[in-house]
């Protein structure tokens, strides 16, 4: 939907200016230069309860994360200018061990202050919005959490099934700022918020029958006229939705670019993708995106990473035209809390804010104790260094635990005779989170922090019934993580598609198969069938025989996948059991029962051998040196850049 014909406040102002200019022609007086003002907008996004610069899985300090670091940049950025406003763009209530401790161990009762809100309340936030992960623990938990927020939250595309809004769709802030000549002016800043409508799939169990989430652009066109009647000078969209190109079809997960088309929106603060804009390679070449200046359809926009890695800064040069202030120019900067040197060292660029640390001290220390609780032992080390290129023990633990859990559940149903398959993905495998983002557990005692390191997310177990043909399509969608390798080329070819999230690389245990990466991917990054004649999954077999595509199978997965997350064929409409337990807790119980495990990958899948001379490469952690899994034909190939080590598959 184009905004060219809607809410055309700018054209009205231009017309008014033209009439005023025309009326002034007969006069001799020179028009006075318009007043100028600078306003700095600051953004945090996707904090995910990362307050302390600490990795609870490694049980060590971490200078790459934490609002306590970002707070230092916030205060410095405010001190540099006369006028500033601070916003949060959502995903603040879930995502770290501190968040899990509050949700699953301590609890959050009415009147309690969540540590994330305690930390945020120590900073001068003007306004915030919801991210999709705010809904992971249910509406009661969310209500209790935001009740203590000392700043308002807005969201225009959700409402309760009763028809009442959960929060205001928008707010108008009237605040006095100083212009370049030192004079004070009251500006009206409108703020409107949005969340991906896919929350209705991803958190169906928590939201079904209670809340409705609609299309972002439709919600904007509904609520913008009301906001514009309040005559704001500037409208800021808090859009917990990413930047993606292509035609608008409705209900987009990543709709920020479409939102920027609407007249009435002046600034777009984005998030959700855990990327950095401007400057991130993922945004190169998208029509309407200026990845250098930082604009969407000419309007200033920013996406400042995740977990507090960056502070988003948008400097607006405002000019008073008539009775309103408008943007004359802008500059966008995602300012990082650290940088990585060529020799892979982390150099902090922000000190740790003592007040933020103090606000969560008690809960941080309790989380450390919680995460250190023993649950069992492992005879073998567990790591995910090569999980994207070969069958992996860190995934095998999850699939084995899920299969054992499902066997007990399905034994009491009419489907007890159906074969049970188990699907899981490598959650920690580097990527945009960096070369330290891998599971690496030594042989010996296993604590809760180790299990949470293997299974990051608070997913719940769900079971689907699908056919053998759908098993194949599920795996074809998963195989989209690989770039197509040309067997006739000898120059280097990157094996892994960096834009494909590792949490969508499902391995299905219970069947055997190879992945032929010389073939095109059947599905694009959004899960749309784009190459109907292509088949990467070869030699797919069940119990040693080619899979019967008409046969029925039970697949154990999680609520994200079963509700349509990742757009996997055959998952969304085939749920036969929604279990009450977290996938992570299923793994904990499995280890508690066994007491000691000796994790070994069963080798049920592999990349089909490549011809000799093909140079297919991938990157992993430098810590992978000396830990090549048995059977994987690969060799170290030097520096992979950005702290990674490069490896090469051998034919």
From TrEMBL:
Could you cite one Gene Ontology molecular function of this protein? hydrolase activity
- InterPro entries of this UniProt entry? 5'-Nucleotdase_C, 5'-Nucleotdase_C_sf, 5_nucleotidase/apyrase, Calcineurin-like_PHP, CpdB_N, Metallo-depent_PP-like, TAT_signal
Give the matching Gene3D superfamilies: 3.60.21.10, 5'-Nucleotidase, C-terminal domain
Q: Which residues form the 5'-Nucleotidase C-terminal domain?
A: 390-569
| GO cellular component: a single term | outer membrane-bounded periplasmic space
User: Which key words tag this protein in UniProt?
Assistant: Hydrolase, Metal-binding, Nucleotide-binding, Signal
What Gene Ontology biological process does one annotation of this record name?
A: nucleotide catabolic process
What PROSITE patterns does its record include?
TAT
CDD domains noted in UniProt: MPP_CpdB_N
The UniProt family comment states: Belongs to the 5'-nucleotidase family.
User: Which PANTHER family has this protein been placed in?
Assistant: 2',3'-CYCLIC-NUCLEOTIDE 2'-PHOSPHODIESTERASE_3'-NUCLEOTIDASE (PTHR11575:SF6), 5'-NUCLEOTIDASE-RELATED (PTHR11575)
Q: What name appears for this protein in its UniProt entry?
A: 2',3'-cyclic-nucleotide 2'-phosphodiesterase
């Amino acid at each position: 939907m184009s905004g060219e014909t809607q809410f055309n406040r700018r054209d009205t102002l231009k017309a008014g200016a033209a009439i005023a200019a025309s009326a002034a022609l007969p006069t001799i007086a020179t028009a006075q230069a318009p007043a100028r003002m600078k306003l700095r907008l600051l953004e945090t996004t996707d904090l995910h309860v990362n307050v302390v610069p600490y990795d609870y899985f490694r049980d060590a300090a971490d200078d790459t994360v934490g609002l306590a670091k970002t707070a230092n940049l916030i205060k410095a950025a405010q001190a540099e200018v006369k006028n500033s406003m601070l916003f949060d763009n959502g995903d603040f209530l879930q995502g770290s061990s501190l968040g899990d401790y509050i949700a699953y161990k301590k609890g959050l009762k009415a009147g309690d202050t969540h540590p994330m809100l305690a930390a945020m309340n120590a900073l001068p936030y003007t306004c915030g919005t919801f991210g999709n992960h705010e809904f992971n623990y249910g509406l009661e938990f969310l209500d209790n959490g935001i009740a203590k927020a000392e700043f308002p939250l807005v969201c225009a595309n959700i409402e309760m099934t009763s028809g009442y809004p959960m929060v205001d769709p928008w707010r108008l802030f009237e605040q006095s700022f100083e212009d370049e000549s030192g004079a004070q002016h009251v500006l009206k800043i409108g703020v409107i918020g949005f969340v991906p409508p896919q929350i209705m799939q991803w958190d169906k169990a928590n939201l079904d029958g209670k809340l409705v989430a609609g299309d972002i652009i439709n919600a904007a066109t509904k609520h913008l006229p009301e906001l514009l009647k309040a005559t704001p000078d500037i409208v800021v969209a808090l859009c917990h939705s990413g930047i993606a190109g292509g035609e608008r079809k409705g209900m987009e997960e990543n709709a920020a670019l479409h939102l920027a088309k609407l007249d009435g929106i002046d600034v777009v603060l984005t998030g959700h993708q855990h990327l950095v804009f401007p400057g991130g390679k993922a945004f190169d070449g998208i029509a309407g995106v200026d990845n250098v200046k930082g604009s969407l359809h000419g309007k200033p926009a920013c996406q400042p990473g995740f977990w507090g890695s960056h502070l988003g800064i948008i400097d607006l040069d405002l000019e008073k035209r008539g009775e309103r202030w408008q943007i004359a120019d802008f500059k966008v900067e995602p300012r990082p809390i650290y940088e990585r040197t060529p020799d892979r060292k982390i150099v902090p660029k922000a000190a740790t804010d003592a007040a933020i640390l103090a606000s969560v001290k008690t809960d941080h220390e309790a989380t450390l104790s919680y995460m250190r609780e023993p649950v069992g032992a492992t005879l073998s080390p567990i790591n995910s260094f090569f999980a994207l290129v070969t069958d992996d023990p860190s995934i095998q633990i999850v699939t084995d635990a899920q299969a054992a859990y499902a066997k007990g559940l399905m034994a009491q149903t009419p489907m007890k005779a159906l074969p049970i398959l188990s699907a899981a993905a490598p959650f920690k495998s580097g990527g945009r989170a960096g070369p330290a983002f891998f599971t690496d557990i030594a042989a010996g005692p296993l604590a809760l922090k180790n299990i949470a390191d293997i299974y990051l997310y608070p997913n719940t177990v769900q079971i689907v019934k699908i056919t053998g043909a759908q098993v194949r399509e599920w795996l074809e969608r998963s195989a989209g993580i690989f770039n197509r390798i040309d067997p006739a080329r000898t120059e280097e070819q990157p094996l892994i598609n960096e834009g494909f999230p590792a949490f969508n690389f499902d391995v299905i245990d219970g069947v055997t198969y190879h992945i032929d990466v010389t073939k095109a991917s059947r599905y694009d990054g959004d899960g749309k069938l784009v190459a109907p004649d292509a088949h990467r999954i070869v030699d797919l077999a069940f119990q040693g025989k080619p899979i019967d595509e008409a046969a029925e199978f039970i697949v154990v997965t999680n609520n994200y996948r079963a509700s349509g997350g990742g757009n996997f064929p055959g998952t969304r409409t085939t749920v036969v059991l929604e279990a009450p337990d977290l996938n992570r807790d299923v793994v904990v119980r499995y280890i508690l029962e066994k007491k000691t495990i000796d994790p070994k990958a069963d080798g049920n899948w592999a990349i089909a051998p490549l011809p000799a001379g093909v140079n297919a490469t991938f990157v992993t952690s430098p810590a992978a040196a000396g830990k090549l899994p048995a059977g994987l034909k690969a060799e170290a190939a030097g520096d992979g850049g950005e702290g990674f080590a490069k490896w090469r598959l051998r034919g």
